Amino acid sequence: MIIRDRPDTWQILTAVRGSVLPQVTPSILIFTLIACSVVALDRLTPLVPHLNSGAYTVFGIGLSLFLGFRNNAAYDRWWEARKNWGGLLADLRSFAREVEVFVDDEARRREMLSLSLDFLHAHRMALRRLPFPDTGYGAAFGSSAAPACAALNAVSDALGRARHEASVDGFGAMRLAERLASMNLHQANCERIANSPLPFVYSLLVYRTSWLYCLLLPLALVQDTGWLTPIFSAVVAYMFLGLAEVTEELSHPFGRSKNALPLDSICRAAEISLAPHMNIPAPEPLAPKGHYLS
Amino acid sequence: MIIRDRPDTWQILTAVRGSVLPQVTPSILIFTLIACSVVALDRLTPLVPHLNSGAYTVFGIGLSLFLGFRNNAAYDRWWEARKNWGGLLADLRSFAREVEVFVDDEARRREMLSLSLDFLHAHRMALRRLPFPDTGYGAAFGSSAAPACAALNAVSDALGRARHEASVDGFGAMRLAERLASMNLHQANCERIANSPLPFVYSLLVYRTSWLYCLLLPLALVQDTGWLTPIFSAVVAYMFLGLAEVTEELSHPFGRSKNALPLDSICRAAEISLAPHMNIPAPEPLAPKGHYLS
Amino acid sequence: MIIRDRPDTWQILTAVRGSVLPQVTPSILIFTLIACSVVALDRLTPLVPHLNSGAYTVFGIGLSLFLGFRNNAAYDRWWEARKNWGGLLADLRSFAREVEVFVDDEARRREMLSLSLDFLHAHRMALRRLPFPDTGYGAAFGSSAAPACAALNAVSDALGRARHEASVDGFGAMRLAERLASMNLHQANCERIANSPLPFVYSLLVYRTSWLYCLLLPLALVQDTGWLTPIFSAVVAYMFLGLAEVTEELSHPFGRSKNALPLDSICRAAEISLAPHMNIPAPEPLAPKGHYLS
Amino acid sequence: MIIRDRPDTWQILTAVRGSVLPQVTPSILIFTLIACSVVALDRLTPLVPHLNSGAYTVFGIGLSLFLGFRNNAAYDRWWEARKNWGGLLADLRSFAREVEVFVDDEARRREMLSLSLDFLHAHRMALRRLPFPDTGYGAAFGSSAAPACAALNAVSDALGRARHEASVDGFGAMRLAERLASMNLHQANCERIANSPLPFVYSLLVYRTSWLYCLLLPLALVQDTGWLTPIFSAVVAYMFLGLAEVTEELSHPFGRSKNALPLDSICRAAEISLAPHMNIPAPEPLAPKGHYLS
Amino acid sequence: MIIRDRPDTWQILTAVRGSVLPQVTPSILIFTLIACSVVALDRLTPLVPHLNSGAYTVFGIGLSLFLGFRNNAAYDRWWEARKNWGGLLADLRSFAREVEVFVDDEARRREMLSLSLDFLHAHRMALRRLPFPDTGYGAAFGSSAAPACAALNAVSDALGRARHEASVDGFGAMRLAERLASMNLHQANCERIANSPLPFVYSLLVYRTSWLYCLLLPLALVQDTGWLTPIFSAVVAYMFLGLAEVTEELSHPFGRSKNALPLDSICRAAEISLAPHMNIPAPEPLAPKGHYLS
Question: Partner of A107 at 20 to 30 A CA spacing, among C230, D136, E33, E144?
Fold first, then answer.
């Protein structure tokens, strides 16, 4: 995620980091060249058809329907994903407090908290399709087919053992089982978002309509706007292809693009929160590097 | 569901799989032919009335209202259906952990987990109106009038027996009964979506307005656009009829269209998740065939 | 509710059942006649003022704001009502399972289930302002001022008696009381929707703007469109008055219009679901009559 | 709240009660006069600038953004407020049933129910900033700084005493404490809506843009529309100023405007629902006076 | 937060306090000057290109997509933040009542309530990045790396001690642990909003498009509107830059801008609510200063 303050005037003109400019520059150049050719052709030959604004508005309706819908849907996915990770962080903190209230055996408590951090890291690595490291949180479950589920099973097993050892009573077992179910639900929600992309057909419709819109723009402008047409085309291509690109990134919130969620940073925040409950020193929070928080 | 990566330039131009092109090609051809006839007639006779853009915009307002609303409503149905199946998967995983924490008798535990998989498959087959197989999960309940309800009744009966045998205490009975109620709610939500289609009158309004819009387009364009009119008509028909088609598919998320939900794959994921709790080997996850996940 | 498959080409042209055509035909005819008069007057006299499209667009903005908002709000009411009835069905199924797990006395169980069906039918009849029958579910509570509340009170009384007889323990009493509270909440939600219509002022604004829009249309079209104007007026009146009519019906989801919810059918589904728990034969599900499900 | 059936043709033309016409008539008259002056000036002098529709559309975009947003936000506040009062009604009904199931002492039960009605009335009067009466529900708490909180504290105290007297066990105490927390949450939600108005800056933007739009309309119309301009201006001012007025009323759902919520009627409904549990005769429901329900 | 009544006619014309005018005045002046130069240049030379409205509408589509989306997203953040603080206030009130019902030891009760106020203030100061004071609520936790978490840990520790001293039973421990988890969730939600700004790329797109729109406006207007062009440009710049500014402020609801949430006032409301439970006199509620509530 890009962490920057609100842009000042100079940044509005020049900011590239955090912008989608790099990704869409090739397309913008192509559409600018096409616009130049159209203007040149129009000046030299009578072959270029002119679109009136009524005909062109037809595409505007389609484009705003598709882009508007896709932008909302993609942002909702991104924000729902963020909510679920925020929910996981809240669950881990509550879990740490609740084991202290309900579980009498301290070794059992530390085991459960450590396993819950294993779960969080395994969940993060599975979502991002990262290779599992050999050491550190989550490493013990890297060989499992479903590492996050396996880690949560281990927490649940520890709870089951605590119950049979009577170091937790019925009230505590119920409360902690509900807490694990809440983590499990957040995990399943994240997997749902990761495994159910926006229907592919919308991507096709959005990209096809955006391209068509940019392609036809010179025909609609050339008569009145003349040699300003290529500049216009570049700006419009930046706007619409840029938005299409942003929505593509936001709709995959667990990827590693600039707009993906800062899962590393959230995992670190969970470690910091659980440290006092485990009697270990808290690590430092992650800081953004070049405005980017991983 | 179609599983494809984001389209590159070549796919934007050519992708058919995952597109709605096949379904709407006949209509597009008809509208193109009509546009050709209108242009020809306009060149040869003075009979063709010309629509000014103001008159035509009137339909644009109606069309964007109807298509925009229906698209949002259809996508919400699809996504709500997906959420409920994601919730069912989460419930089954939590159920498996909670029976381990709260139920002492292992045979009873395996019976309950196996019955819950019966429930999931029966629910899937009932939603898709599939014939029940003779063996496999869900088969035992195929003869019931309401197979999914019958299977969930069986899980609940097993819980009741466990309670009378005292292999589960009051806390466990309460926690597990709440878990079953959650599954039951997700099931009822899916049935609601399946049994309450979008009001039929919207389908009529959307299709009638889209058709009218495409039908009148040549009259609005012919004067200025000439022989480009049929190409325009084809592109516009693709955009709007395509969107109407997509929303039709998405609004029936449990069907077997290309955009329907991958229920087989989710059921398999549940089997994989429950396998370690039942001490049986986990099956392989389902893989998409030709980008299609059933 | 109208239950029809997706319309094919022929139905798009001709479907009347499930359409709003019958309700809006008189208004359409009036606007067509007005349009004819305007064209005739315009041909014979120079008295008819011509509206340019800029002036006319002003009404388009208002109309799309009002219709778009009202359509969303009405559909949300309809869908929220449907969700609450789906929730009631789920609650009754869970209630039936939970009394089996937690209540030992079978006579008490059957009494509670039978009373819960009384509640559902009383709630349905109260929402639809139907007279109560002399026999059948709900009949016993027809003389009460608030039949649905009285029936739910009776279920709660049965639970209280079961608790004092010790045929249900504390866990069961808590679980079942929560279930009754959930039914009670769904009931209150339905009453809220029934008793709080959309603010009347929106109806006025929508109908007044739609009428004005259709009334002024001939003045905007007559100059360019000539004798096609009445046809246009008819189509546009169908679109906008039709949508206004649909939103009126959907915003009263418990009425008896074609787009109202199929409460009879949902009550029957509840009877079918509870039959095995009451050891009585299940009735047949309701089937749509002429595409209409009551 | 205005309770009227759907408007028929005659009412569409004439309804004033439930309309916003009275509030906006002065502004409409002003804009009509301005439009008359502009037309007269345009006929007599060449001084009046003419706006082309492109320039005017710029304001249309702004206006539809501001009005559309504010309308949705205001309606959401109104509907959320209604949901919370519906939730309070449901909570009081469930509370009455649950005290019967869980509290053994009848005097204690009646005390708790009576105090809960005190709470509801105190909450209503605090929200509407009404003076507290000397007798009747809520009167005992009128001298408190936060009457609704004080009344709910009293219910909670009664529960605490019941617990120490052992007339309610742990299960009952937990269930009833959750019920009180639910009432408390609905109360806090209503206070949030009452104390956090829509950001003032939106009111400024909406009113300023609406005024500007109506003010400039004659300049955009005068050239083509001539003496119809004042009529147009009046109709457009009615549409947009009327909507701005409606959203102002809806965004203050606890006020005493025509579109405010019928809190008196809901409090009365709660009294009716609790009467059988308190063994007192139920009062009559409130009826609308002149279509207005207070 | 600005607390003002609805603006009357005079305020609509003149209100500055609560308006965004001060922030956007420099930009408005720049665009007005540019517009003056364009008109002058157009009168003196033939060099100024004229944009037709079709070309200009292209930017209108982009602008309304970006501004509309960002406005909704920013308001949703603001309102969600407000809901969470409303939820915290409700939680503290319920917490105070529940400790009275479930905790027998009065000293323990007062300790828990006092610590919960520490938590609320620490949470407020952490969100606003304020320095911690030396005395008063929250001061004791100022040296912690995560003060709000530390304070909530302290409440939880007190609950744990009460449980080991048997001054709270299993039911009470469960109920109070759930209450603390609810506070913890609201805290995590606020931190999520504070730490996950709207994607930076939207800010760039909105500001760049708004600037471009205002910059090109004179070219679209100059031909028809002449010397009214600078006035138009100023008004349009006020509308769109003002909205961009408002959404920037609303999207940071915990800042100290005029539209930020009144956290001081909510904390004070919590102190007032808890005072009777702690047997201390209640402080005065905060009053707005110059329409501003901190």
Answer: E144
